[in-house]
Design brief:
The protein has helices at 17-24, 27-35, 74-79, 83-111, 156-163; strands spanning 6-16, 62-72, 116-118, 180-188. It is of the alpha+beta class. The longest helix is centred in the middle third of the chain and has 29 residues, at 83-111.
């Protein structure tokens, strides 16, 4: 991306699905955060849902978590715009990484039949503010969309720090963080051994 250079490092952690659901999910707490966002009930991958998307997660044997660590390089920091333009640059950066990451997760669903992938964050398929749910119309890309782990009530701060061993960092309009962390996952019936090459 023009004006922003970065490196990617992948962190993986696998555990029993039932353990992750029991120890790291708090629907009431995180749906309250979702309600403060303008995407709540206005985006097909965000709460509230017409059906319980988390139903049956404990019937999977394992969940493999993928932490994608995005480290901005020094020259990228120096060349990036400030203020609101900086936030736009970050948004574009995350979309760029997700454009590579999300298809890899969908491919894992094919490689491991019966599995279920969850993206890192909200949907980027439609232009900002133009999800058809706003007008109560069906999704344009139902075969491509997946909800995020946080949208289903999983605590990603604890997931990052306790399981992936890389605490989340937060950015603002004035300063870049040392890195950004995207957390996605896939629930499977069998053990999955992930490696960085899958996502490159």
């Amino acid at each position: 991306m023009e004006g922003m250079s970065y490196t990617l490092t992948y962190h993986f952690y696998r555990l029993r699905a039932a353990d992750y659901v029991r120890e790291y999910r708090d629907v009431e707490k995180f749906e309250a955060f979702c309600k403060e966002c303008d995407r709540y009930d206005n985006c097909w991958v965000c709460p509230p849902y017409e059906r319980d998307l988390a139903a049956g997660l404990q019937t999977y044997e394992f969940v493999s978590l993928i932490g994608t660590q995005i480290v901005p390089l020094l020259e990228g920091k120096q060349n990036a715009a400030s203020g609101q333009k900086k936030q736009i640059t970050v948004w574009q950066l995350l979309k760029e990484v997700r454009a590579k990451l999300d298809p890899c997760l969908r491919n894992l669903e094919i490689v491991y039949p019966g599995s279920r992938a969850f993206y890192a964050g909200t949907c980027h398929l439609c232009p900002e503010g133009q999800c058809r749910k706003i007008w109560r119309l069906p999704c344009c890309h139902p075969e491509w969309i997946r909800p995020s782990l946080e949208a289903l009530g999983f605590d990603l701060s604890r997931t990052a720090e306790e399981l992936l061993q890389v605490p989340l960092k937060w950015s603002n309009t004035e300063e870049w963080p040392d890195y950004w962390m995207l957390i996605s996952g896939i629930f499977t019936r069998s053990e999955v051994n992930l490696c960085p090459e899958i996502f490159e």
